[in-house]
Write a structure and sequence with these properties.
Helices cover about 55% and strands about 10% of the residues. By secondary structure, the protein is an alpha/beta fold. It has an 8-stranded mixed sheet with strand order 3-2-1-4-5-6-7-8, with helices on both faces. Bound molecules: nicotinamide-adenine-dinucleotide and 2-acetamido-2-deoxy-beta-D-glucopyranose (2 copies).
Amino acid sequence: MTDPKEGYIVIIGSGLIGRSWAMVFASGGFQVRLYDIIKEQVTAALEDIRKQMDELTKSGMLRGSLNADQQISLLSGSSDLKTALEGAIFIQECVPENLELKLKIFSDLDAHVNNTAIISSSTSCLSPSKIFNGLRHVKNCIVAHPVNPPYYVPLVELVPHPQTDPITVEKTYHLMKKIGQSPVKLMKETDGFVLNRLQYAVISEAWRLVQDEVITPRDVDIVMSEGLGMRYAFLGPLETAHLNAEGFKSYCERYGESIQRVLKNSGPVSNFSSDAMIQTIFVYLQALWDEQPDKSDQLTERREWRDACLSHLAKLKKEMKKE
Ligand SMILES: NC(=O)c1ccc[n+]([C@@H]2O[C@H](COP(=O)([O-])OP(=O)(O)OC[C@H]3O[C@@H](n4cnc5c(N)ncnc54)[C@H](O)[C@@H]3O)[C@@H](O)[C@H]2O)c1
Ligand SMILES: *[C@@H]1O[C@H](CO)[C@@H](O)[C@H](O)[C@H]1NC(C)=O
Ligand SMILES: *[C@@H]1O[C@H](CO)[C@@H](O)[C@H](O)[C@H]1NC(C)=O
């Protein structure tokens, strides 16, 4: 493999996720080019990244070993696709989640890249088969699905197309490691990948428990944030089970039957367009917000608070890691 730092990481789409990716790659010392179909969006992205990096520096949360100025100097922008792709070794696509749009982008990229560049998609829900079928460079294509916000949550799900070259998977895996993300490899495609399949199971059960009037929306959120989530920030469900009994086998012997009984009686999949339920949950979220002292911009403030929590958690996880 050529030393990646010699070539360019190209980000296609300079929105929320594109900006985050750009920052993560720059923190790893890579040269990054941001492309967007809207010229102003590239300018806005570069300005926003500088602002974010300055704030991260102030709070001591800037990632990587380079300072903000050094990281900024690795970033450039372009609103011409061909120029943007010059010297590209790895392309991370971050355009809106729309199949037609993605197909158009990948066919354009396919026409411009050379035989070694990796084409990676940030898609949350579209399967590699849907977006990469028939491309000349399909063996270099992969999904690298980040978690929002990628700067604070390191997981990346790598999902291959059936024709993806194993070398593409390995190269992408090592690149992700190099920039400080935590990649996992799916061995084949599955609808929703893995993170969302797990997340949907949790949302679905929360919805059911509220709908069945077992618990209030506020309390179901507390069950996760003050209960399950405390452990899950450090251990997965399998190791959690292992530690909750005398090993995993003992866990299955002790709890297997009751787990099966509970799941069997869980009923059909909920209908997530129930107006009554959406209203109930809205009332809870509104009340939660009304308790806050400053009520300027609900979503923005709460997201900033979330990101601050996550960056502290990331620090703690690093300290707690036994190497
Ligand atoms: N937002 C999340 O929580 C999240 C998490 C993981 C993955 N993703 C995935 O990341 C991708 C991007 O999501 P986002 O939230 O950053 O969207 P966004 O709307 O914030 O940004 C999309 C950007 O793409 C640009 N764009 C539109 N058409 C384009 C084109 N033809 N060529 C180049 N640029 C174009 C837009 O101008 C915009 O800047 C989606 O596939 C989404 O599923 C999002
Ligand atoms: C493709 O382009 C990259 C970046 O310029 C370069 O490092 C690589 O050697 C090229 N590969 C081929 C096969 O031309
Ligand atoms: C879900 O609920 C909505 C609104 O109550 C209804 O219009 C729709 O038909 C339901 N869908 C299914 C699959 O039951």
